[in-house]
Amino acid sequence: MLARLHRPFKRHVAVPVALVRIARGERIGAVAADLGLSHRRLIELFTAEVGMAPKLFGRVQRFQQAIQAARTARAPDWAGVALAFGYSDQAHLVRDVVAFSGLAPTELSRRGRVPVKANHVAVPMP
Question: pTM surpassing 0.85?
Answer without folding.
Answer: no
